[in-house]
Amino acid sequence: MSKETGSSRKEIGGAMGEMFRIAMERPITKQYPFGPPEFAERFRGKLDVDPVKCTGCGVCEVVCPATVIRMVSTGKRKVGTREIETKRPIFDLYTCISCGQCVDDCRFGALELTHEFELATVDKNSLIMDKALKSVR
Amino acid sequence: MSDKEDPQPEGRKEASAGLIQYSPENLVPFGPVHPALKEPEYFKLILEGEKIIEVIPRIGYVHRGIERAAQERTWIKNIYLFERICGICSFAHSLAYVQAVEGILQFEVPRRARYIRVLVAELERIHSHMLWLGLVGYWTGFDTLFMWIWKDREHVLDLVEAITGNRIHKSYSTISGVRRDLPENIADPVKKEMAYIQQRAKYYKDLVSSEETLISRTKGVGRIDADLAKKLCPVGPLLRCTGIARDVRIEDPYAAYDELIPEIKTSTEGDIASLLALRIDEVNESCRLVLEAIEKIPSGPVKLTAPRSVPKGESMFHVEAPRGELFYYVRSPGGIAPERVKIRTPTMANILTATAMLKGHTLADVPVVLTGMDPCFGCMDRVSVFEVDKQKEWSVLGEELRQYGIKYYKERRAG
Ligand code: SF4
Ligand code: SF4
Fold first, then answer.
1. Would you state the torsion angle of the CA atoms of residues B79, B80, B81, B87, taken in this order, to the nearest 10 degrees?
2. Burial class (CB in 10 A: 0-12, 13-18, 19+), B362
3. CA–CA dist A14, A22 (Å, integer)
4. What is the CATH number of the domain that holds B264?
5. Spatial separation of the C-alpha atoms in residues A87 and A54, rounded to whole Å
6. Domain range spanning residue B395?
7. Which of A95, A112, B213, B357 could form a disulfide with B222 if both were Cys (CB 3.0 to 4.6 A apart)?
């Protein structure tokens, strides 16, 4: 017993001063979820779409590396003599990697990465975001 | 048991005639599933008593097919795919890839973007090295060191998050530059944190050269010399610890390394103890480079408009990732997706050296030596040890092996 204490004291010796210094400091661990979370300004969290700004152009579907976005038809619209199909994006956010490529490429500024990060869920369907362009414009 | 019933051990011995003979009696299978490794590997450790006399690596268990997947994705989407090859050096991967593509496009990247690339790459090197230093502390039973270093590493990760938007998967590179400019007023926090890291690095340098636990577990362990290194071609710190000063940043400068010149640190011992000191020196040097980059950074744009399609051609690029030279080959058929991407990661180059480092050591040294080559964390997930005379098979978890190593050295020192 005494032998063991002796050897471990020798082991610790080199780091003793530092240990005292750190023991005096406040703990750096934060108690989650109490207290406000700290983010950098640029932190990339959950994606959000502005239904007013989105025009259903479909660029985000093409650029997304994680196949989050699918375009579904919302009906038909007459442009001059032609009839074109209007679409709206549905975001399956459970595969989103929050890279922000769609935000960069949306010309209408409809997309934004929020600071929301608590996305754990037991039902992945709750992460399907379908709020853009519900009505035919 | 007669020969007829069990002809296999005999047969195996014959098959390996001329080489070192192995059979279930002296073979310790190590692996193969190491989920945290980029290149998961399986080591057959052949023992003589407790001493390892031969190591046979076998790789390719968790082949994810990333190179094939890349052929189905567009040039931009691939940046995010390649970042996910490695969690720790994600920026090095995306950097090597985008620079290879820029090579085909013959783009001149804006000078400010090249400085920012150096800045983020060096921050990544600091956090990767600190992670590794902590892990060596952990595997040698010096958990306090592990906690301290990982606490200090958070300071670097906070900077990375402030600059890129994420701690690990930075998603910051793009073809023709970086995706966003530096945030305003970043210079002050960078200077403050780098001064802090430099001061800590000095303390850790003293600690690793005076702490008995660390010295007894790392001094003379996993030794390789320059001649062996020349034969086995390791890369990165593993090569530099044998005294050979080679670094892609100097030999083939990319980004802004032609203007921000790093000093190559070497050491001549070639063991894990010298790797510890070497990596701390490199942390210090990276801090200096980050400070120099933030001082000298020019103004201007950070990216150009890259075309969606890349003309026919091929290109190669290598960067100095935290673990050594990372190599990318990209071939474009002239279109929106690559025809072939070939990647050679540093761990792949280092694996044979790691097997050479293991030879002559005991089973208790395996975690430290394999961590020493920096094969990403958590690699010692599962080892099974066969003990034939006791007629049982153990399945040793990483934690048990760690405890075994600590106990082994404690007993050896006591007796
Ligand atoms: S979010 Fe933007 S890019 Fe996507 S469909 Fe709407 S407008 Fe187009
Ligand atoms: S943030 Fe990235 S992964 Fe998520 S929807 Fe946008 S492009 Fe797709």
1. 110
2. middle
3. 14
4. 1.10.645.10
5. 10
6. 387-415
7. B357
In chain A, residues with a C-beta closer than 8 Å to the C-beta of B410 are 7
Query: Which residues does chain B have within 8 Å of residue A28's beta carbon, measured at their own beta carbons?
Result: 151, 154
Q: Please tell me whether residues B286 and B404 are part of one structural domain.
A: no
Instruction: Identify whether B15 is part of a domain.
Output: no
- Give yes or no: residues B271 and B401 share one domain: no
- If asked whether residues B411 and B308 sit together in one domain, one would say no
**∠ at Cα A103 (A101, A109), nearest 5°?**
155
Q: Is A59 on the interface with B (CB under 8 A)?
A: no
**Count of domains in chain B?**
2
- The kind and range of the H/E element at B95 are helix B90-105
The answer on B134 and B200 residing in a single domain is yes
Name the DSSP class of A87: E
Backbone dihedral angles phi then psi of residue B36, each to the nearest 5 degrees: -85, -5
pTM above 0.90, yes or no: no
* Residues contacting ligand 1 via CB (< 6 Å): A 49, 54-60, 89, 106, 108, 110-111
Tens of pLDDT, residues B285-319: 999 999 999 999 999 999 888 888 899 999 999 99
Q: Which two tokens stand for residue B352?
A: 């044979």
Ligand 1, atom 4: closest residue by C-alpha: A60
Residue numbers in B near A39 (CB within 8 A): 161
CATH numeric code, A47-134: 3.30.70.3270
Residue A37, pLDDT above cutoff 50: yes
* Closest listed residue to residue A19, CA positions, set B142, B128, B202, B198: B142
Which residues, in sequence order, are CB contacts of A54 under 8 Å at separation 6+? A88, A89, A106, A108, A110, A111, A132, A133
Q: Which of residues 168-197 of B touch A (CB under 8 A)?
A: 169, 171, 179-180, 183
Cβ of B161 and A65 within 8 Å? Answer: no
Residue B40 binned pLDDT confidence (cut-offs 50, 70, 90): low
Distance from CA of A48 to the nearest CA of B (A): 16
Tens of pLDDT, residues B225-246: 888 888 888 888 888 888 888 8
